[in-house]
Structure formats: C-alpha cells, structure tokens
Amino acid sequence: MNNCIFCKIVKKEIPATIVYEDEHTLAFMDIGPIVKGHVLVIPKTHYDPLTETPDEIVAQLHTVAKRIAQAQIDGLGADGVNIMQNNGAAAGQEVPHIHVHVIPRFTDDGHHWNWAAKKYDDFEEMAELAEKMLSSFHL
Ligand code: 5GP
Ligand code: ZN
Q1: CB neighbourhood size of 88 (10 A)
Q2: Residue 6 Cβ contacting ligand 1 at under 6 Å
Q3: For the chain, which residues make up each domain, given as ranges?
Q4: CB-ligand 1 contact for 45 (6 Å cutoff)
C-alpha cells in the first residue's frame, strides 16, 4: 500500500516512537493519545479491516497488545487498560491499516467514553437481532 501512513511507519519512511518490534508486528506511540501513553499495535503487512485479516495475524496483534498492557501497568503505573479496535468510518476508523489501540487508564485521568447504554423495545427485538447474526455466523 503506497499511500498508507502506517506502512510508511513500518518502512521507517516516517518517524515513530517504537515500543516493540518483531518479525510480524510493530507497536508505537499514538501521536494523538486519548490518554498519555496510548500505543498502537499493527501488523507489518497491510491488512484491513479486521474481517479481512488472517486469524494468526489477529492473534499476534492481541498477544502483543496484552504485553503492552502489562508494560503500561508495570511501567506507567496504569490502574487499568482499554483495548480498542475500530473498523470502518462509521466506527471512527481514520487509518485503514488494522491497528489495536492500547490505552493506559488512570483513576481520575479525565477521559470518559460516550457509553450511553440503550434499551431494546422488547425482548423479541433483541432476540431477532441475535438470530440474524447467528444465521450468518461461521467459524
Ligand atoms: P483510528 O481512528 O483509525 O482507529 O485510529 C488512528 C490513530 O492513529 C489515531 O489515534 C491517531 O492519533 C493515530 N495516528 C494517525 N497518524 C499517525 C502518525 O502519523 N503517527 C502516529 N504515531 N500515530 C498516528
Ligand atoms: Zn498499510
């Protein structure tokens, strides 16, 4: 992918503050942190979105994300960690190269998710949506 900003970071064509690197995976500081210490974990090969990414790559990304979370707890004194992964503009994705956000959280860090729980009209509405998903589910 010629024009992908994260591919350019992989090729070291643009700078990034790298916190972890192996044969398949790169992790670096997010330039616009939700909370300071925010890290992005990406595969070195360009994939997008999650549903088009091979299972073993997804597993590698999340294994590294877990290690970064531990480093945020141990090294930054984080009290908690959010793991987040956006797919598609409707979901807030801005960079179309799969990436896992690892966000250290501190008591009173001032960040609040806009997480307003909604209600289903009734049990049937919820069951109908579950049924629609199940009918398209395949492993
Ligand atoms: P998305 O909204 O696609 O899930 O997240 C993209 C993330 O990439 C954002 O949090 C943004 O701050 C970060 N980002 C965008 N461009 C750059 C860059 O050039 N360098 C770094 N380190 N992070 C970037
Ligand atoms: Zn890319």
Answers
A1: 12
A2: no
A3: 5-111
A4: no
| Topology of the domain comprising 5-111 | HIT family, subunit A (3.30.428)
Q: Is 7 helix (H, G, I), strand (E, B) or coil?
A: helix
Pairing of strands 25-29, 39-43: antiparallel
Which of 46, 99, 101, 138 is the catalytic position? 99
Q: Is 138 a catalytic residue?
A: no
pLDDT digits (tens, 9 = 90+) for 7-16: 999 999 999 9
- Cβ–ligand 1 distance for 94 under 6 Å, the answer yes
- Answer yes or no: are the C-beta atoms of 5 and 14 closer than 8 Å: yes
Q: What is the pTM of this model?
A: 0.96
pLDDT digits (tens, 9 = 90+) for 20-59: 999 999 999 999 999 999 999 999 999 999 999 999 999 9
What is the rounded end-to-end Cα distance, in angstroms, of the chain?
29
